[in-house]
Here is the input.
Amino acid sequence: MKLRTFKMSAVALVLGVGAAIAAPMAAAQESAPAAAAPKKPSGPVICPGYVKGKTTLVGERTGKKVQAAFEAYNEDRVQEAIDILKEVDPSDDFDRAYVNRFLGNLIASQEGKGMEAFGYLKSSVEPKVLNDLEHAGTLKLLGDLSMQEQKYSDAVSYYDQWMDFTCKEDAQVYTRKAQALYEQKKFDQVASAADNAIRLNEEADKLDKNPYLLKLSAFFESKKYPETVSVAETLVNKFPDNGTYWIQLSSFYMMVERFDKAVQTLDVAYTAGFLEKDSQIKQLASLYSNAGNPHAAASLLAKYVNSGLLKKDAEMFANIANSFHQAKDYKDAASFYGKAAAADSDPEYYRKQGTLLLVAEDYKGAIKALTNALERGAEDPAKIHFSLMEANFYAGNFKAAYEHNQKAKEDKSLRRNALAWEPYIKDKAKNRGIKI
Here is the structure.
C-alpha cells in the first residue's frame, strides 16, 4: 500500500521564524522568579531537574544586520533579507548559530531550496548554543525539512533529538516519525511510533487517521494480515463515513479467508452508497455467489448493466445468466443467455438459452434458440437434436420430434435414450393422426 510522502508548505516552514527574528536590540529581560512551582513542567524543555539558563541575545554589530533583515522580511522582501544575512560574518558562536537559523528559516520558504536551508539549520543546532526555544524548534524543523527532502533517516534522528532535548511528546512528531520509518521499510518499528501518536491524540480528544493508516500499511507490507485486519476494523469504527476503509476491510477479510465477514462488510458499504466502481460491484456480486446467494449476485449485476456502470457485452450477460441459472431462475437465465448470444452470436449461448427454456417449459422459445445454435455450427449437434426432439414433442410437433430423434440416434452416446423415445413419439403421433 502506498502512502503520500510528507511535504511541508513554505508557510509552515517559516512559522518558526518568529522567535529567531525577534528584535535583537530589545533590552534583555530575565524572567521574574515564579511565586510558586508549577504543578506541571512548562516551557520549551520539561525534563526533570532541568534548570533554564539565561537568555542569550545577539551582539550589537550582528543585531543591526539582523534587524535590517527582519524589516525586509516584514515587507515581503525575502530575498533582500537573505542577502543581508549572508553578508554577516559573526565571530561569536551564538551569533553565528542565530544568523544561520534565521537564514535557514527564510531559505526554507523558497521553492526548491530545501537542501540549502537544511545546511544552515543544521549548522545552527550543532554547537548547541541557541536558547532552548530556538534550539528545540530548529530540531523539529530539521525533522520536517528532512521529511520534505526525503531524508528519512535524518528525519527520525532529528525527531528523536527533539524529544530527548525537550522531554516532550507530540502526536504529529510521532506520526511523521512513523512515516519516516515506513519509507525506510522499517515496518517492524512503525507500529510503536504510530501507537504513541494514537495515544496522544486520544488524550487530546483528537482523531487522526494517519497513524492508523501507517500501522495498517506496515502490517500489510510485513504480511501480518491478521494484524492488518485488526487495524482496518478500527479504522472502520473510528471513521465510519469513509467508504474506502469499508472496501479495504472487506478485501483484508478475503485475504484471511473470512468470507462471511467480507460479504457482510462490502454489503454494508454498498448499502451506504460507497461502491462507485464497476470492479467493486463485480466484487460484491462474486461474494454474494460464494456465499450461496447467486440470485442476489445476478440481480446486482443486472441492475448495474441497466444503469450503464457495467458493460453490456456478451461476457457480462453470460455471467448474469450463469448466476440466475445457479439460482434456478431459468427464465431470467435464458433471457440473459439470449442477450449474450445477440451480442456476439456464439452458438453456445443459444444452446444454453434453448436448454433453459426447455426446462422452463417455454417450448416454442426453446425450439427457436436451439435451432439458432444448430445453424451457427454449435458443437455436439446430436445433443441439440435430442433437446429439439423433446421441445418439439412437448409442443405437439411430433413429426419434427421424430426427425430430430433420428438425428440424435446417430450419436452413440445418445442412441440408447433416443431409441427409448422413438416408439413413444410414434404412438403420440399415431393417436393424433399424424403420419411420420
In short: The mean pLDDT is 92. The radius of gyration is 38 Å.
